């Protein structure tokens, strides 16, 4: 059962007045369909996405006066990727307030990065309509400063497999090898365990799909190798 939305209003830090838009923001399409509602959070998600983009664009413009347009675009893209937005959503435990249909609830949908990222944007859209642009900008930039003090550092985590490949080619002229070690969990919530091997080094990653598990393994191995003197 979803938590009381009045708690969420307090956690978001806006004293109000609030309209009913926040209730709309936490209404997943599956819940709306199952309960024959005439609304869900998709329109607010659309609005929140646009508001977030302009706020982040301005924020990065002032934060990195030396950055070229291409680099700022990449940083902004990293900040609006599902894992980054899901992290912001989890800070407020937004998934605890999300109304979902029975099937979505039973499959753990409220804790998926994709669902949480969409939910964060929808809540932001409601926040913007009720609190205004200045308050929304203050809310977003405060979150980014707390969670991502140096957003530029996110660029190294966008493509961990490519990063490891570049490192291995530069030092050894080798290509990392990936293999699935194990899969577990129910069909709707699988867990993949993937190993990456490079020269005499290896690391194991885990995630809900093979691609993400490979990325997790690559990230771990690159982090290890970049902190030691490479040996063949």
From TrEMBL:
Chief localization: cytoplasm
Residues the record marks as active site: 49, 121
SUBUNIT field: Homodimer.
HAMAP family xref list: RNase_III (MF_00104)
Keyword Magnesium: yes
Lineage top rank: taxon: Bacteria
UniProt-recorded name of the protein: Ribonuclease 3
Gene: rnc
Catalysed conversion reaction: Endonucleolytic cleavage to 5'-phosphomonoester
């Amino acid at each position: 059962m979803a938590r009381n939305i009045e708690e969420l209003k307090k956690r978001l830090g806006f004293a109000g007045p609030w309209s009913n838009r926040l209730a709309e923001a936490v209404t997943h399409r599956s819940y709306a369909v199952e309960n024959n509602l005439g609304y869900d959070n998709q329109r607010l998600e659309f609005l929140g996405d646009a508001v977030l983009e302009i706020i982040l664009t301005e924020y990065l413009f002032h934060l990195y006066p030396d950055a070229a347009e291409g680099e700022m675009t990449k940083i902004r893209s990293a900040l609006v990727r599902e894992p980054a937005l899901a992290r912001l959503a989890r800070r407020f435990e937004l998934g605890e307030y999300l109304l979902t249909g029975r099937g979505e609830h039973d499959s753990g949908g409220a804790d998926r990065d994709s669902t949480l990222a969409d939910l964060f944007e929808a809540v932001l859209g409601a926040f913007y309509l009720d609190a205004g642009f200045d308050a929304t900008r203050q809310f977003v930039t405060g979150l980014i400063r707390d969670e991502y003090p140096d957003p530029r550092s996110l660029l190294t985590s966008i493509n961990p497999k490519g990063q490891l490949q570049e490192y291995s080619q530069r030092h050894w002229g080798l290509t990392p090898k990936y293999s699935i070690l194990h899969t577990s969990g129910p069909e709707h919530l699988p867990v993949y365990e993937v190993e990456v091997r490079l020269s005499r080094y290896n690391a194991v990653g885990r995630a809900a799909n093979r691609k993400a598990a490979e990325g997790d393994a690559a990230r771990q191995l690159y982090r290890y190798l970049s902190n030691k003197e490479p040996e063949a």
